[in-house]
Amino acid sequence: MVNQALIESEWNQVAWGNYETNIQFLRLVGLDHGMRRILEIGCGKGAILSFLQHSGHTVSGIDMDREAIAECSATHPDVEAKVVSGNVLPFDSGCFDVVLSLDVFEHIRDSDQHLREVRRVLKPDGLYLLQTPNKWTNIPFEMLRQWKKFHTSPIGSYRSLLQDHCALHSYSQLKARFSRNGYRIHFVRMPVVNDYFRAKMRTYFGPVGPALLLVMNPDRFPMPLQTNFYVVAIRLPD
Fold it and tell me: Disulfide-capable partner of 26 in 31, 54, 58, 131 (CB 3.0 to 4.6 Å)?
């Protein structure tokens, strides 16, 4: 039986993912001000686009979720938002200073095609900024999440995970894939334990969730074991 309340609570969040930490990341890399042209892949309901627009940037957003794009367009009518996948971007080559994706990369099955398209639409020395979960920490959590939301068996949860998070990467796999596709990358350490993260731990682990953070705080993990990777990827010359 589907846990409808849990699904609805996720939809009603300001943005999918750790919004507070994602905004901190954008501030850290200097996107809290400026006049750049930015594309967000997986823009959802437009919360990040709104932040960037109010920071002075010209923004465009794409997402596969028609309902989310409809809400984005209704809430932010002056923002360009389209229903488009991340594999074929309907934009001219070299037209963006920055491409951004948060909690999206792991959902795009053909990672190489995606990175080629992002590289194509970026200007020389443009930036691809992304956040994506760590393969090794995400697999057990997502299996638990699938079970809580849909009450699937362990095998069913794993199959759903492979369909939804079909492009999970480890630290070394991300480095290798970006290098092969013409980027130089830098990992940024971002603290993820905040009210959102604690609430998520309570939701999926019950009362023991907050206690787990006292002994296994992911903010103290070494970079290859971080629960989420925050990456600055620089487009290298052709």
Answer: 31
CB crowding 111-129: b at 16 or more within 10 Å, else e = beebbebbbebbeeebbbb
For 205, phi and psi rounded to 5 degrees? -115, -5
Q: Which is it for strands 228-235 and 122-133: parallel, antiparallel or unpaired? A: antiparallel
pLDDT in tens, 146-168: 666 666 666 665 566 566 778 99
- Continuous H helices in the chain: 4-11, 19-28, 47-54, 66-75, 111-121, 135-150, 154-164, 171-180, 195-205, 208-215
Distance CA 229, CA 124 (A): 24
- Report d(CA 123, CA 18) in Å as an integer: 28
- pLDDT (tens digit, 9 = 90+) per residue, 73-132? 999 998 899 999 988 999 999 999 999 999 999 999 999 999 999 999 999 999 999 999
Output the six-digit token pair for 7: 């699904």
Q: How far apart are CA 104 and CA 120, in angstroms?
A: 18
How would you class 98 by CB atoms within 10 Å of its CB: exposed for 0-12, middle for 13-18, buried for 19 or more? buried
Which structure tokens are listed for 231? 């990456």
**pTM reported for the whole predicted model:** 0.88
Q: Which CATH number fits domain 18-132+166-235: 2.60.40.3880, 2.60.40.1220, 3.40.50.150, 3.30.230.10?
A: 3.40.50.150
